[in-house]
Structures are given as C-alpha cells and as structure tokens.
UniProtKB/TrEMBL annotation:
Protein name: GNAT family N-acetyltransferase
Claim: Metal-binding is one of the keywords in the record: no
Parts forming coiled coils: none
Domain N-acetyltransferase residue range list: 8-200
UniProt xrefs under Pfam families: Acetyltransf_1 (PF00583)
GO molecular function terms noted in the UniProt entry: acyltransferase activity, transferring groups other than amino-acyl groups
Organismal lineage: Bacteria, Bacillati, Actinomycetota, Actinomycetes, Micromonosporales
InterPro entries, A to Z: Acyl_CoA_acyltransferase, GNAT_dom, Trichothecene_AcTrans
Transferase keyword on record: yes
Source organism of this protein record: Verrucosispora sioxanthis
Keywords, alphabetical: Transferase
Amino acid sequence: MTVSNKNLLVRPATEADAGPLIGVLAEAFHEGPVADWLVPDPTDRRTVYYRYFTDAFHHGLAHGQVYTTGDQTAVAIWYPRLERTSTDTGGRLEVLEHIAGAYAPKFVLLEEMFDAFHPDEPHHYLAYLAVDPVQQSRGIGAALLADYHRRLDDLGLPTYLEATNMRNRRLYLRLGYTAGPTIVLPTGGPIIWRMWRGAPTSSGRTPFPRTLPRRRPL
C-alpha cells in the first residue's frame, strides 16, 4: 500500500526501483568506520559495495519488505524475525567470496558477528536504512520509518537494528530506540551499537532483551 507520511510519499519498492535504490545504498554506506574497516581502498570499495548492495536489495525483495520514497532518495530493508532463523553459512560464504573477493573474510566476520548477537525475541529487523547523501539531514530517513513503526506498534512488535556510527545512533535514540550492549569488531574494527525499539506497553516499551551470543555449530 502507498502512504503519504508528513508530506513524504512512502511506498513498497519493486524490481523496477533496483537501479536507483542500489545506488542509494552503495553511496550512503560508502563512508564511515565500518566501510573503512571492510574495504580500506575507496576505489575497490565502490565496486564491492555496489555488488554487495545489489545482493542485499534483491534479497530484501525476495525475503523481506523493502520501502522507498516517491523520488527514490531513500530505502529501508526490513525482515520479520518472528522465530529463530538459521543461516546457510556455506552458501553465504560462496556469495560473499563472489561479491568481495579478497575482502570477503571481513564481510563474513561482520555478518557472523551480527548473527551471533541477534535477539531471539520475535521482532522486525531493520537491516538497512539509506538516504541519498545529498538529501541527508532533512528528516527523510525518520519519515520513511514512521509508518512502519506505527504498524509494528499496532501489532505489538518490537524492532531491532545495528547502528554503525554515532550519528545514526543519535537518530535512532530520537525515534524511540534504546541502546543495548555493543559489538566490537575484531582485528581493529569499530564499535557497533545494537538498538531496540520495544513493543508498546501500558508503562512505556519493552526493554532491550537479554541476548546470549550464539555458539557456532561444530
């Protein structure tokens, strides 16, 4: 369904949006501590990130829910996580090696760390929120999320995400998220802030769930 939210048109994305929205994702995430850690060479990063977010966008369409704005300047990729899920680690490794080449080990490590610390409590997971860098700081990202947040509140469901820098962390705090225990990426990697927007209750919102790191199968 297409909705208008604070004068911003928000609608489900389709395959026809792939070109512009993959570009938005790749550009929005191109700068920052995680990007510097994953692919230190900025030229290589542009190529690798375009491949990575091509995969992320199409995976979101196939397995999650993807929303964009009327002018395609922003995109959000959500996944309902209503029960514990398992990852095909062998298949994912093959995909990441194709996408990232020599940089694949850090991409694998990042995704494994995210998976290990993911809450088991039923929720919706905001995997990616991206706004065209030229359009940032105009409230577009917050407006893109507002309708989805309202629908999840009506369903009594919380949301979870990983913020990769302090600016994003401050945005999510303003949107009603709370910060949980952090993830520190190894090999000199940056800090990741785990964020939780609890389900509404009579006294506020449900707290950040206790999460024990998952053990990898032997």
